[in-house]
Predict the structure.
Amino acid sequence: PPDFKMEEIPMETIHTGAAAITFPTTPEAFIAYQEQLIGRRLKENEWEVTAAWVEVFNLSYEGGLNQDCDILVKVLDKLDELMARHEYHEGVHKFAEACRAWMIEAWKQGAERSASK
């Protein structure tokens, strides 16, 4: 599997190397966790975007279950492309890096569950 170091992931939502979210998860659980972290309710448009990304995170988890490193690398490459297209937009980079962290975490949880079966 790809060697991703947690310390390379600049994200407040992963605490001490262990996520407080277990994948697969629901949009409601993930959003409740995000709202707790930021100390406010998500706006409707934020809720919709986050719910869509939860589907991606859950797919990453499935990739981990199947020990499919290629799918994770492909999705992370797409995020890199997004960041390159918006190289001067800090908000896009921060969001994409947070998504990257959650995709890696979900994949790792899937891989760990697969290995423990």
